[in-house]
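DATA CLASS: polypeptide
GOAL: derive structure tokens

***
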Amino acid sequence: MEEVRQGADARSRLRTAAVESFAAKGFHGTTTRDIASAAGMSPAALYVHHRSKEDLLHEISRSGHERTLALVQEAVASSRDPREQLLAVVRAFVVHHAEGHTGARVVNYELAALSPAHLAEIAAIRRRIEAEMRGVVERGVAAGDFETADPRMTALALLSLGIDVARWYRDEGAWTPSRIADHYCELALRMLAADRSPGPR
């Protein structure tokens, strides 16, 4: 049991170190030695737990995308009203990408470094996230709550806005994740020609 705990701790340390290193230097600019050193481990330690640096990136990307999909699904399930679903998704998505901006930058902006098979797996999860947002937009259009000529493109635009928060957000900035989410909810409603006042009708 102690060996299992130590193994899990080592994997966690390597993962944390990899996220920080990939975010700071990029995947290709980071060496396995960089990751191991940041984790306080020997250069060979990474290969005890991962087949390669790319395998570690894949694990980080997969778990990050799975968490994002889960929070989007939870937000959609929080209401049957498309407008409330939209606000819940946008808020959860934006706060998630702001609070976890370091990891989110790695998860979303290092996709090109994945192997074809791993990229295909991540792309499938991303399509499920997109489908959830598109479904919200389409239901709102069908109900007469939203207006857009292209629900799919609008859904992608909304997701892209939230993802990009991870690129520029910094903890020491003037805007809190909640404040940014409030503003992005307003932007989402305006994009869909909906009621511009976030909150319950």
Observations:
- The chain has two domains: 1-50, 52-191.
- Confidence is low (pLDDT under 50) at residues 1-7, 196-201.
- Residues 116-142 form the longest helix (27 residues).
